[in-house]
Amino acid sequence: MESTIRDINLATKGQLKIDWVKAHMPVLNTLREEFERTLPFKGKKVTICLHLEAKTAYLAKVVQAGGAEVTVVASNPLSTQDDVVAALVAGGVHAHAWYGATDEEYHQHLHKALDFGPDYIIDDGGDLVSTIHKERRELIGKVQGGAEETTTGILRLRAMEKNGELAFPMIAVNDAEMKYLFDNRYGTGQSVWDGIMRTTNLVVAGKTVCVVGYGWCGKGVAMRAKGLGARVIICEVNPIKANEAWMDGFEVMPMVEAAPLGDFFVTVTGNKDVITGEHFQVMKDGAILSNAGHFDVEVNKVQLRAMAQSCREVRNNIEEYLLQDGRRIYLLAEGRLVNLAAGDGHPAEVMDMTFALQALALHYLATAKDSLESKVYSVPLEIDKRVAELKLRTLGLKIDLLSEEQENYLANWQHS
C-alpha cells in the first residue's frame, strides 16, 4: 500500500524528532518492550487518526512493535509535520497526510487510510468513526473497535450510542483520570500558551485573558494564564463549573460582558459559535483570538470575515481582520487548535501517559473484543491504575501501601 506524503527526503530530520520524544516517554518505552515480546496485535491492521507530530509517531511505532500493520492519518491539516510523517513511512508505517491539506485533500486522506481496512482504530474528534458510519459502511463488521482521544469525539460517540447508530465498541480514553487530569489540564495549559506566545511574541503579564469553557482543558489554560501574571475571566454555561471557577479565584461573566475587556481569548468548549459577531462588535483594538477545541468552529470566522473590510497575514499564523471602524482583531492559526497548529502540542512526558492509555486500550480491545457490545466504554480502572503506577516508577517515586488490616477496615461498614 502506497503512502500519500509530501517528501520522503525529510525522514532524517523527522526521525530526530521522534528519537527526542522517545527519550522522554518512559511509560511507552516499557509498553514497547512488553509488546515486542507478546505481539498482541500480530496480524492486525490499525489506523491512527491523531495530530501527526513526533509523539503520535512514537505511539504508532509502539503499536507497530506489537505486531500490527499501521496506517496514520492527520486529525488536523495544520498540525501535521511533514518530516515526522516521512520518518514514519521510512520506518514501515503507512501514512496519508501533509501539512496544509485542503478540505478536499484532508477527506481524501481519511478515505485512503480507511482503504487500508483496519481491524482497530485510534480516533481524534470522531473523524474516522464518522466517516465509517456515513460514507464507508462496508467497513462495519471489519472494524472491531477503537479508542477515542478527545472530549469532542466522545460527545459524538455518546450521541451515536444514544441513537443506536454506533456499530462497534469504542473506548473513551479521554475520560480516564490519567488522561484528563494531566493531558487536558497540564498538557493543554502549557501547550496553548506555548503556541500563543511563540506565535505573537507578546507579553501575557498584565493582560486580561478570557478563557471560554472551564472543563479540564479550560482549567489548565486559566491556571497557566494566572501563573504568567494575567487577569483571568472565565465564561461558562455550566453553573457548577462557573462556581468552581469563582472559587478558584477567577472572575466569571457572560461572554458579551467579557468581550470588551479581553486582550487574549482562548476557546475550549468543544461547541460552535462561542465567540460571534456580537462579541467582535465590542472587542478592543488588538484583541487576539485563539482556539484550543478540536474543530475550528468555536470562533465564528464567517461572521468575522463579513465584518472586516480587509484581512491579511501579518505574521506566520496570525490573520489581522481590519474592521470598518479601524479596530483590528487578530485570529491565530485560522481558529484551529493553537497548541498544535502554531506549536508542538503537549509535552512529551504528558503524552507519555495518554498514549500509554491508547496502547493499552487497543490491547484490551484485542483481548476482550468478543465480549464487548457496540457501546462507548470507559477505560478499565486497572489500565488507568497501571499507567499511574508505571509513571511513578519511571519518576523514581514510591507511595504507601494499605495494610491488610486497613483494607479490611475500609471494606467493612461495621468497623468504627
TrEMBL record:
Cofactor note: Binds 1 NAD(+) per subunit.
UniProt: NAD(+) binding residues: 150-152, 184, 213-220, 236, 271, 292-294, 339, 346
Cofactor: NAD(+)
UniProt-listed InterPro entries: Adenosylhomocyst_ase-like_sf, Adenosylhomocysteinase-like, Ado_hCys_hydrolase_NAD-bd, NAD(P)-bd_dom_sf, S-Ado-L-homoCys_hydrolase_CS
EC number annotated for this UniProt entry: 3.13.2.1
PROSITE patterns cross-referenced by the UniProt entry: ADOHCYASE_1 (PS00738), ADOHCYASE_2 (PS00739)
Chief place where the protein resides: cytoplasm
Catalyzed reactions: S-adenosyl-L-homocysteine + H2O = L-homocysteine + adenosine
Protein name: Adenosylhomocysteinase
UniProt lineage: Bacteria, Bacillati, Bacillota, Clostridia, Eubacteriales
